[in-house]
Amino acid sequence: xxxxxxESSLSGPEARVLIIVTGGTICMRRSPSGFVPARGFLKxxxxxxxxxxxxxxxxxxxxxxxxxxxxxxxxxxxxxxSSYDGRVRYTVYEFEELLDSSSIDAKGWTQIARTIxxxxxxxxxxxxxxxxxxxxxxxxxxxxxxxxxxxxxxxxGSQAPMLELQNDATDNLLGSLxxxxxxMIPEVCLYFNYKLxxxxxxxxxxxxxxxxxxxxxxxxxAVTTAMRTQVAWERVQKPRHIEHFSIQTNLDTTHVxxxxxxxxxxxxxxxxxLKLDGLRGLVLETFGAGNAPGGQDNAMTKVLADAIxxxxxxxxxxxxxxxxxxxxxxxxxxLSRAGVVxxxxxxxxxxxxxxxxxxxxxxxxxxxxxxxxxxxxxxxLTEQSQTxxxxxxxxxxxxVKNLAAMGYAxxxxxxxxxxxxxxxxxxxxxxxxxxxxxxxxxxAATSPNLSILRHFLLHGGSVHLRNRAGRTPLFLAASAGLxxxxxxxxxxxxxxHADELPVAELHARQRPVLWELAGVDVMGLKMGNKGKVExxxxxxxxxxxxxxxxxNGRVDVLSRSPR
Length: 563
Ligand code: ASN
What we know:
Keywords: ANK repeat, Hydrolase, Repeat. Pfam families: Ank_2, Asparaginase, Asparaginase_C. This protein is of the alpha/beta class. The protein is built from 18 helices and 23 strands. The site of asparagine (ASN) has 10 residues, from loops.
């Protein structure tokens, strides 16, 4: 059952989305040597289409293009109003080299992760255009690399180029933009053929059909119909840590391998792979629920067990399109006893990229990697004991009442009552908004009881949702003069929205310490240095700004630099 759309839509302030173009069919043109990626996507493919351009000619916007914080102005466009009464303002940032996705590897994943990291505080959401061939791998990799993600990152592509008369590119991109700009889904997702999948659950199932992707072990997070996009909020992952957004780059794909078991496979073949120089991890695609031939005199099991003894992590995933690896049959049980980790219902793409991510983490050991491979980090596998909450039908009035009751409880600082309401509504009431667009987190930002704010942050409340006046919870906490609330929100990755900065800077003249804590560059203000912000990543130079709409937000100081 899905929740009504009004609750978590960003209707009100205009959403800002950065479209990152990596290549793929979606931006390809015909050439004598076949389809090749082409530059100038905004001008050639988007500007002439009324669905992508309302003709209002918004000014250029800044995009941070490197780790020094260098900013460049790029032209932007605005969509006409959606059925949710919101518009999306977006710009397109093309990578220097546009690739067919069959050539994208860990270097490309790093480039995408860094671009998102550099521009995180400037945008409400990100859309990544990518070829379909290796799209499921990139989605999975990014889902692990983007740690404590608080904003939507939606990857899409197409089977036919946008510039071809009959194509799926137009609807895939428009659907991605609408979802990114209207719904606070803080996950790496894949939007294709009117469905939004969790990125690390998706797999390519057709080389030619428009329905090129599926996520056989996880229902879609949202589906677009002729009426609207229905989000299944109960399936959406929510933040559960008080942590900043950060990225882990340079996944270790050079020391992992993937091997598909087949009838008659020889233990020597498997041994040869396991003895590859420097190998640290292997994904084994096994039969059915995780079975593999034990080999003559258990030779295969011995080869696997020996490699595990040498510190190689071996993870078993099923060759079937759906279902899970679990040691129910004797051969599967034998593998498990030998130390092979059951990858449960992970896709091969998720298992391989997760292994590469865990091996790249500082201080990783074979034991820690094996342990984390079997648990869900980003919703990539279904843990057996996890219960799925389903909301009964027809409860909208009750939910609205509960939201109002929550408002009173928060204002009174009544934690007990807050917990009572959350027991009934589960966690997803936290991203619901009242008539003025305030979520429970907005209310808690000025609650007399700081632990209510902490409780919401630990149970999935988004720090990035803005009310109808465009205010974030952080802005409200600072306006109310509450340093503890401000500090806690900042710790959770909250930052002032670019639109809030001019007013925040005015407030900062009265209360510099408090507003500095909220993220205003008070020192820069004192020096009258409006275009520059010093952060952990160096000086970010605003330069001349032709943006009369005011998208001149600064890159906030994030506590962690990209690795
Ligand atoms: N070869 C293309 C790519 O992955 C396929 C596509 O995008 N449909 O880049």
